[in-house]
Design a protein that fits this description.
alpha/beta; TIM Barrel; eight-stranded parallel barrel; 8 strands; about 15% strand
Length: about 280
């Protein structure tokens, strides 16, 4: 994961992780906004570490892909960050990112964010780096300073975060391709970009970001937003007509669904275990 160009689509449950893997992606991403949104909640630090860890366990139980997890501000102070690392690493995450916002945090592409003192964020990163048990577990430091204090402050913070133990820098809410290029030129470590829709950043492709010099890109809520729109449309049509007959072509057939979740593989495994037990008697 550290050596490849990482393209990580956002997933929001086990079956979406399976579908991302079937599509050919090399990594997947669990968004804090996606976790909250799936629960019908806003992305305002109202979810808990336990709730995020539960989702991580569900996803890593069915997908082999390395999972990057949005750990918001670390769920508290440096001592809380220590526990966050241990809990999410044990749950199966391959990487997580911490951000330098003040609680309650906001989506990185909204106005009105507040940033913590640089030293406080560095203490959190140091705690995170010290807490991991596996050296391959990746600590990503996200800075939201671009929208609050300007790009130069964001770059200075990024370099200090690398010195404190971050493996990758997540440069949030860059506003032009030139700003992405400036980050590559001046930040002394690998960079991750966020290509969320309807935000402050231009929607650059994975190939364009790789050419600029980035090492990773996430698409946090693309599939989630597609799902929301499709589900609302299905509910609206079902409510109006009282039947799904007129939009059956928009549904995944039972056979395809079973193929996605490996239904028959589970059946075969159960049969093999039964025969093994029977033969051992």
């Amino acid at each position: 994961m550290k050596n490849d160009f990482i393209v990580a689509p956002g997933v929001f449950n086990g079956i979406s992780a399976i579908q991302a893997e079937r599509a050919g992606f090399n990594s997947i991403y669990l968004s804090g906004s996606g976790v909250a949104g799936s629960m019908g909640l806003p992305d305002l630090s109202v979810t808990t570490l336990s709730e995020v860890a539960d989702e991580v366990r569900k996803i890593t139980a069915v997908s082999k892909l390395p999972l990057i997890v949005d750990a918001d501000t670390g769920f508290g102070e440096p001592i809380n960050v220590t526990r966050t690392i241990r809990v999410l690493e044990t749950a199966g995450a391959a990487a997580l990112h911490l951000e330098d916002q003040v609680l309650p945090k906001k989506c990185g592409h909204l106005n009105g964010k507040k940033i913590v003192d640089r030293d406080e964020m560095n203490r959190k990163i140091s705690s995170a780096a010290d807490a991991r048990k596996n050296d391959d577990f990746i600590i990503i430091a996200r800075t939201d300073a671009r929208s609050v204090l300007g790009i130069d402050d964001a770059i200075d913070r990024a370099n200090s975060y690398l010195e404190s133990g971050a493996d990758i820098i997540f440069t949030e809410a860059m506003e032009s391709p030139d700003e992405f290029r400036k980050c590559v030129k001046e930040i002394r470590g690998p960079l991750l970009a966020n290509m969320t829709e309807f935000g402050k950043s231009p929607l650059l492709s994975a190939g364009e970001l790789k050419d600029i010099g980035y090492r990773a890109v996430i698409f946090p809520l693309t599939a989630f937003r597609v799902t929301l729109k499709a589900v609302q449309s299905a509910y609206d049509d079902l409510y109006k007509s009282g039947t799904q007959r007129d939009f059956i072509d928009r549904l995944m057939p039972r056979s395809e669904f079973y193929d996605v979740i490996g239904y028959h593989e589970y059946e075969d495994e159960d049969l093999n275990l039964y025969n093994l037990k029977k033969g051992g008697k």
